[in-house]
Amino acid sequence: xxxxxxxxxxxxxxxxxxxxxxxxxxxxxxxxxxxxxxxxxxxxxxxxxxxxxxxxxxxxxxxxxxxxxxxxxxxxxxxxxxxxxxxxxxxxxxxxxxxxxxxxxxxxxxxxxxxxxxxxxxxxxxxxxxxxxxxxxxxxxxxxxxxxxxxxxxxxxxxxxxxxxxxxxxxxxxxxxxxxxxxxxxxxxxxxxxxxxxxxxxxxxxxxxxxxxxxxxxxxxxxxxxxxxxxxxxxx
Length: 236
Ligand code: CA
Description:
This protein is an alpha/beta fold and 236 residues long. The chain is 42% helix and 22% strand.
């Protein structure tokens, strides 16, 4: 599968030029012309890389980046900006940008930066080859590297917490697990979620993975205990 890049840029000629150049390099390209659309697309599609302009209509690039990093740590982000001031640069890195390219830039320079960022991203999760990162759950395929789930030809994003919770369920498949055990393992001592938080995350996983979220077969409620997970619905 090709790597997917989302281009968030409101200047149409630049956006089109970027998209063409990236397609020519073999990327699958998604595009958005404002910050709201960019954020929505990034969260829904979970692209490997986001090229993010700062001055955008509806929602500026920093706000997009901040929202992305709160939920989705996987996508690499390169900021494209006409503003080259030191403060912007620092702010960008603080919000979790992987690189910062000042306009005007040459396409050659940008492609070199992209390659470097993608290599670093791969190095950060050694052994997590894209093919190994995929696992089948029910009729869905979860991609732990891309933070996505694909079911019946539709792809949706998964948050880091949803994936952490899913990993926990996979490690305890077939056993009833208590909410307290899940809290301790997935949320840890530094955070203070309630057991409601777990229920809400399980509901989200059901919506994305179950055939019928109202009649769950993968994430089954065990009354008075917690949950029991099964990788497939088992024809029940
Ligand atoms: Ca702009």
